[in-house]
Amino acid sequence: MTIHPTKLACAIGLGAAIGLSPLTAAAQGTQPNDPLTQPGFIKGSMVAQFKTQRPENRDGDYPAKGIADTFQIDLAVGFTKYQGTISCLPYVFSKHIGRVLQEGSCTYDVNLSVINPQNTSQVRSVGKLAGAYAIDEKGVVNLNAGSLRMEVQTIGKAQGFSSPFTGVFAGRPPAKVTTISKALDQAAKEVRTIEKMVGQQKVSIALGNVDPVRFQGTQLAMGPVSTYPQATVDGEFLYSYETDNWFPQLTIRAGTGKPDKVSGGMKWVESSPTEGHYELNVILNEQPAGKGEAAAFESAQGEDAFFQSDASQSVINGRIGFKDQKIGDAVVKSDIAFDVGLQNVSAVQAQNFAKLLLLIPMQMWGE
Predict the structure, then answer these.
(1) Which domain holds residue 118?
(2) How far apart are CA 17 and CA 30, in angstroms?
(3) SS3 of residue 56 by DSSP
(4) Phi, psi of 77 (to 5 degrees)
(5) How far apart are CA 17 and CA 124, in angstroms?
(6) Domains of the chain: total
(7) Can you give the pLDDT at residue 35?
(8) Average pLDDT along the chain
(9) Is 264 left (phi over 0), alpha (psi -120 to 50) or beta?
(10) pLDDT for the residue 367
(11) pLDDT band per the 50, 70, 90 thresholds, residue 289
């Protein structure tokens, strides 16, 4: 059997971790930076328990101290798996003067596994996504001061490693509602203008009220196997209050490679007051459409332009579905289903996207 050299690296890394010989492993996989087109590459579930929103766990405008929101994860990303829990404590302030009673934080206890490409029922644990980070009063996370990391064991010929998450990211500051400030509107609206290629033309739209998650030299850890290198994220992930849509405006550089420009969007589609889904059209390194394809985009207007599919682009697609449970108007539980595919996207790029979502559970899924 002749094995093409571009099929070796990713499969050998996974195969060594589960005990396959290098040649057997190579026959099953592709180079981690090769583009793939595959539905369901990121697939699984997340159960979000918003215990801080339950009436018995609240004291007026704030949750009681010590009550955490939890995110139970069972997610496959290609031939790797993330299974475990992220627990996040919110900031808690005193009701009268806004004194800090509890600082915000997220703690990770997530098992990392690899799946045998020959027999997908065979799964081997290789380590953990573990540690914690604090969220300050301004919504800033300094990962350098935390302990979040990927800890991977040495198994067979696969060398173990410890790889930290570093850098800074920031979301919306925690709300401080006091008897002094209740009458004040503290939330100044942020606006953004973003751009999109529509056919061969660049168009701009204004987003009137957004909640940005800002990344500044945010480094995603290497792993779950060494063929997925550290990656650095810069830019913003924008949430639109007006439409509930997300718009990535990011660059992600894996290792020392060329940075990927990440754009497009995640469109919210509501089917009932307690059910809905995001339709993903997250584009990597968007290129102008050829003249033949341009006509398909001529009718796209406003935000709709960010959700037009194009077979010539590199796209993370599919959907993320939600089924909510409510008490009154408060969502207290969300069952979240991931069925996310790739179109001309590499396994490395898909891992970076998955790790980014896991890094910001409160900003992405929190109430």
Answers:
(1) 5-365
(2) 16
(3) helix
(4) -125, 100
(5) 8
(6) 1
(7) 95
(8) 84
(9) left
(10) 61
(11) low
Look-up of token digits 């969007």 = 265
Which pTM was predicted? 0.85
Q: Kindly give, in sequence order, each residue whose CB lies less than 8 Å from that of residue 121, ignoring residues fewer than 6 positions away.
A: none
The single-letter DSSP state of residue 229 is -
pLDDT at residue 26 greater than cutoff 50: no
* Run of H or E including 40: strand 35-49
Structure token digits, residue 163: 């790889």
> What gap in Å lies between CA 106 and CA 30, rounded to an integer?
35
CA distances from 106 to 154, 176, 263 (A): 27, 19, 27
SS3 of residue 358 by DSSP = helix
3 state SS of 329: coil
Determine the residue type at 222: M
How far is Cα 290 from Cα 62, in angstroms, rounded to an integer?
A: 53
Sign of CA dihedral 239, 245, 249, 253: positive
Residue-level length of the chain: 367
DSSP string, 147-204: --EEEE--BTTB--EEEE-EEEEE-PPPP---TTTTTS---PPEEEEEEEEETTEEEE
- Per-residue pLDDT, averaged over 127-141, amounts to 94
For residue 214 the two structure tokens come to 């800002």
14's tokens:
């996974």
Question: What pLDDT is attached to residue 14?
Answer: 53
Kindly state the average pLDDT of the residues 220-231.
Answer: 96
* For residues 319-338, average pLDDT: 96
The predicted pLDDT at position 196 comes to: 66
Residue 170, beta-bridge partner list: 140, 214
Coil, strand, or helix at residue 15? Answer: helix
Q: What would the pLDDT profile of 294-306 be if each residue is shown by its tens digit?
A: 444 455 555 565 5
Between these two residues, 195 and 339, which has the higher pLDDT value? 339
- DSSP lists the bridge partners of residue 321 as 277, 337
| pLDDT for residue 272 | 96
Give me 134's structure tokens.
Answer: 């604090």
Separation of first and last alpha carbons in the chain: 54
